[in-house]
Amino acid sequence: MPDHSPKPKSLFSAVIEKMKTRHNEQYREAVARLEKREQSLLNDIRGYRSQLDELDLVIKNIKGADAGHLALLMVNRGNVRDTIVAMEKDLVDAQSMLSDSFATHIVGKQLTKESPVKPKPKLVMALSIVLGLMLGVFAAFFAEFIARARNTGSGKEM
Asked: How far is CA 129 from the centre of its chain?
């Protein structure tokens, strides 16, 4: 009866290609989102800068206005300036993320075994025995520690 199951190497190659394709799709989507965010921030910054220019013009043209009105305009100007600074920081962060991102590239060749990996019962048994002994010794020391702590706490000596 002929074996028509896929070879491990071809299966591994298919999985790698699928992962690479999926990662590249996610990369393109992420880059598109970052570029959209960058463009949105640039537009918002332009709008706030024009608002700041208008406020500066209004403040320059106000002569003899009451101090309360002028103070409100100055506070508004400060808020707009703070918003612009925060947006510029976000813009720098978005641009940094764009420059730091990269698509998937496979470096080197794939190393696969032709035969499947099989369990090694002798190794499993040896490790089980060694770890069981270690756990038993630990449990004995811990039980002794607890017994001494109880005796010491109640004022009894061993």
From this structure: 41
CA 158 – CA 124 distance, rounded (Å): 41
Cα–Cα nearest to 98, from 26, 25, 27: 27
AA identity, residue 158: M
For the record, the structure tokens of 51 come out as 């608002």
Q: Answer yes or no: are the C-beta atoms of 70 and 62 closer than 8 Å.
A: yes
**Token digits of residue 50:** 């024009």
Q: List the alpha helices (DSSP H) in 1-158.
A: 8-61, 67-100, 121-153
pTM comes to 0.50
- Check: CB of residue 70 under 8 Å from CB of residue 59: yes
Write down the pLDDT at residue 148.
92
